[in-house]
Structures are given as structure tokens and as C-alpha cells.
């Protein structure tokens, strides 16, 4: 995963990269974001920061390369795998209601859907320890790559499940951590089986409406983004490189693993409410934050990633999720104590540099 590679590299950087000027965090973040755009790493960057007392938003760059209108801080963007945190939250709410238990085997609720479903638990799905094959690893099924006209194809969850199970898991469930979007396709089906309603409607009913997240949506088969939004681009490996506009796509290929659309302010409200215990019981929140080693430099809970930032006064854990779809990168993080950072980037000709990403995190959480 590109995001994990970026963050793994970034978090290995010495705390000496933390800004040392007397400027305010807001002015430093402004300069850091401007630097990304001016160095042509991204076409637009949106940021929303809460320092525990005050909030600050900004947008830099342009919405698109044709009109070059300024990016809007209230712009919509594809949040990719941050969708997984919404889905996990709904399932933990269902656990709180006694509709299922985290250690229930999948077959108890979705018989004959998952191979070996009697040995794979709900917890293992949400934690990525089920070892189910990732359907997005199959050729033509990744929304992180240009797919031409195929990006407008629509899919059903059952079709994605069928793609996933063309290959079998080769390890016993629970033994290893392996990121797989298939886990959250199954999680979405589980929500639908338990509630009798589309998973997206449950996300709206249980999270979006109670938190007044009016600019967050579950798009289904809608290919366009709500206005305003920055466009996403992808360079093709031609000589010279050809830049294609990848903004429009049918998001059903991502479904419950990554289809949602939001804004920086809405995501700030969501991750803050979740980590402050407003959406689940404290017991369920503790389960979400109970992590397993996923990489030498980050850990994974139930729909939550835990990263440790190299602050000058010592390591600082932050919680949330990252997301990536073609043309869009998202970081939605909080320390659970009042500080939060949501960052949306539109990569252009190359990936954002790791030092720039970690510096933004350090400025937001360590000052």
C-alpha cells in the first residue's frame, strides 16, 4: 500500500525534523502545505486542524489543471479506506446492541459466503487477520490504478467476493496480519444481514445524521463528486508522461472497503467523536484500539490504525485511518485528547515526500 509505505518511511525519520521556528502551528502548516504544492508533488491540499482549543482550515493549490480555480477548504474528496472506520464503527454498535459478538464465526451470520467461514471471526475481519485474499490485488480490480473506461463499470458485493475467492488464503486465520479489502466487503454484507438495510443507510442513520455530517456521503454508483471538489490526476507511463483526469469513477468497486466521500471538517468531527466515546460503548472503543502488529512502524485495531509520531519530547500515538484512491490521499488522525488532523492531498506526478508528511503530523500534534 502506497500510504503505508509513505507513513512507514515518514515515522522512521528523526524527531529532529520537527519544526523549530517560533511560528504558530497554523503558519507552519500553511508553509508546509504550500511547499508540497510549489514543489509540484500535489495539485491541491486541504487541511483541517484542531489543537484542542481552536480549529483551523485551509486549502492550497488548484481545483483542476484546466480552469486553475483555487482549491476550496470545504471541498469534497474520496476518502478511500477511511470508509473502513465508519464500517467498523457500525459493527461495534451492533455488538453493543447484542446483535453479534466479535468472536462469532462469520458462518454464524453469513453461512456459505466465506470459505472457511466457520474459522474466521468478525474480529479477524475488522483487524485484517482473516487472511482472506484481497480482490484488489487481482489485475483490473484496483482503484489505485488507471483503468480507462473500465472505471465506470459497476459491481455488486457478490461479484467482488467471487473475485477474491479465486485464490485461497494460505495461512491459518489469526496467525498473520495482511491488509485485505475483501474483509470490509464481507463486513458490509454482515451489516446488511443483521439490519436488513443497505450498509450505507446504516452508516447514515447511525453516524452521519447524529453527528450532522452533511457533507459526507455513501455514493453507491454515482461517478461524480459533489461540488466543490479538487480533481484527481494520474500520470500514465508514456514518454513524455500523459496526465489523465481520474476524478470520475463508479465507486462500487470499493463499496464498504473505500467508497465514501467527505470533507476535512466532517472527518475531523467523526474521528474526534469516535475516539471520545460518543459512537460506541467504552468497551467497544477499547476493542477498536486493541491493536495487533501490522508493520514495524504502525499497528492495527478494529478499523483503526495507530501511528507513533516522533515528537521532540517523546513518541506520541495518534489514531485514525489513511485512505488512497487514484488521485486522492487522505489522512484522518486524532490523539483522542482534543487534537486532530485531517489532510486531503491530490498527487500529481509523484508521491508526496515522506519528510513533508511527517513534518505536518509533528506540527499538528507535537506543538
UniProtKB/TrEMBL annotation:
Domain Beta-lactamase-related intervals: 40-338
InterPro entries: AmpC-like, Beta-lactam-related, Beta-lactam/transpept-like
One Pfam family per UniProt: Beta-lactamase
Protein name in the entry: Alkaline D-peptidase
Species, as recorded: Actinophytocola xanthii
Amino acid at each position: 500500500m502506497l500510504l503505508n509505505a509513505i507513513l512507514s518511511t515518514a515515522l522512521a525519520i528523526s524527531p529532529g525534523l520537527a519544526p523549530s521556528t517560533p511560528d504558530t502551528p497554523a503558519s507552519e502548516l500553511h508553509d508546509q502545505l504550500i511547499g508540497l504544492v510549489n514543489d509540484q508533488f500535489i495539485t491541491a491540499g486541504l487541511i483541517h486542524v484542531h489543537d484542542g482549543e481552536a480549529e483551523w482550515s485551509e486549502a492550497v493549490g488548484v481545483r483542476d489543471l484546466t480552469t486553475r480555480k483555487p482549491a476550496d477548504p470545504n471541498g469534497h474528496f474520496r476518502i478511500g479506506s477511511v470508509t473502513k472506520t465508519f464500517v467498523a464503527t457500525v459493527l461495534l454498535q451492533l455488538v453493543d446492541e447484542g446483535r453479534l459478538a466479535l468472536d462469532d464465526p462469520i458462518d454464524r451470520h453469513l453461512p456459505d459466503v466465506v470459505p472457511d467461514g466457520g474459522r474466521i471471526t468478525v474480529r479477524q475481519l475488522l483487524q485484517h487477520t482473516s487472511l482472506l485474499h484481497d480482490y484488489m490485488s487481482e489485475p483490473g480490480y484496483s482503484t489505485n490504478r488507471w483503468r480507462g473506461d473500465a472505471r465506470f463499470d459497476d459491481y455488486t458485493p457478490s461479484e467482488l467476493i467471487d473475485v477474491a475467492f479465486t485464490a485461497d488464503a494460505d495461512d491459518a486465520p489469526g496467525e498473520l496480519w495482511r491488509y485485505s479489502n475483501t474483509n470490509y466487503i464481507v463486513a458490509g454484507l454482515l451489516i446488511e444481514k443483521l439490519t436488513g438495510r443497505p450498509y450505507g443507510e446504516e452508516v447514515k442513520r447511525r453516524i452521519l445524521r447524529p453527528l450532522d455530517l452533511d457533507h459526507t456521503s455513501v455514493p453507491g454508483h454515482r461517478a461524480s463528486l459533489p461540488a466543490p471538489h479538487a480533481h484527481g490526476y494520474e500520470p500514465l507511463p508514456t514518454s513524455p508522461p500523459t496526465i489523465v483526469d481520474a476524478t470520475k469513477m463508479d465507486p462500487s468497486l470499493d463499496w464498504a472497503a473505500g467508497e465514501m466521500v467527505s470533507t476535512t471538517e466532517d472527518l475531523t468531527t467523526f474521528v474526534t467523536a469516535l475516539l471520545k466515546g460518543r459512537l460506541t460503548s467504552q468497551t467497544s472503543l477499547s476493542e477498536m484500539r486493541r491493536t495487533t502488529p501490522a508493520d514495524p512502524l504502525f499497528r492495527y485495531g478494529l478499523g483503526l490504525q495507530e501511528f507513533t509520531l516522533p515528537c521532540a519530547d517523546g513518541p506520541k500515538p495518534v489514531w485514525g485511518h489513511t485512505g488512497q484512491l487514484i488521485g486522492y490521499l487522505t489522512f484522518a488522525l486524532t490523539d483522542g485528547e482534543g487534537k486532530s488532523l485531517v489532510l486531503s492531498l491530490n498527487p500529481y506526478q509523484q508521491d508526496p515526500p515522506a519528510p513533508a508528511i511527517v513534518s505536518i503530523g509533528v506540527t499538528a500534534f507535537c506543538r
